[in-house]
Amino acid sequence: MDNWKEFMIELQTTFGPHNLVTDAEHELDYLQMKENQHINNNKLGKDGKLTAAEHKRHFNLNLCMFCGGNGHFLDKCPKKEAKAKAHAATAAESSLAAQSDSGPAPESKN
């Protein structure tokens, strides 16, 4: 292959065109949920907290109050920790961006 254009033509001939929508639809065909996962929008109340019935279900089945998983509780929830770390990283990045946008700090005259 002598140039980029020939390389791209060979790629498209060998692998076909890449279509993000088709790829996503194909992945959705094979998507499966775990046994304890359910799509249910009625788990949370208007305040964003578990409904009383869902809270009772989590309590009775010894499920985590944050993610609904088993084998751990709210204080040791890996999803809660991951979310907190992601939030902290985002806050740090925005703080750094705000500092760099404002430019260098003015020097004081003594």
Describe this structure in words.
Helices cover 50% and strands 0% of the residues. The chain has four helices and no strands. The longest helix has 24 residues. The mean pLDDT is 76.
Helix content: 40-55%
Count of extended strands: 0
The low-confidence runs, each spanning 5 or more residues with pLDDT under 50, are: none
Order of helices and strands: HHHH
Question: What is the end-to-end distance?
Answer: 67 Å
- Percentage of β-strand residues: under 5%
Name the overall outline. Answer: flat
Mean pLDDT: 76
Structural class: mainly alpha
**How large is the count of helical segments?**
4
Radius of gyration: 25 Å
Write a concise synopsis of the structure shown.
This protein has 110 residues and is mainly alpha-helical. The chain has helices spanning 4-15, 20-29, 52-60, 78-101.
Keywords:
110 residues
Can you lay out the helices and strands and say which pair or pack?
Elements (H helix, E strand, L loop, with lengths): L3 H12 L4 H10 L22 H9 L17 H24 L9
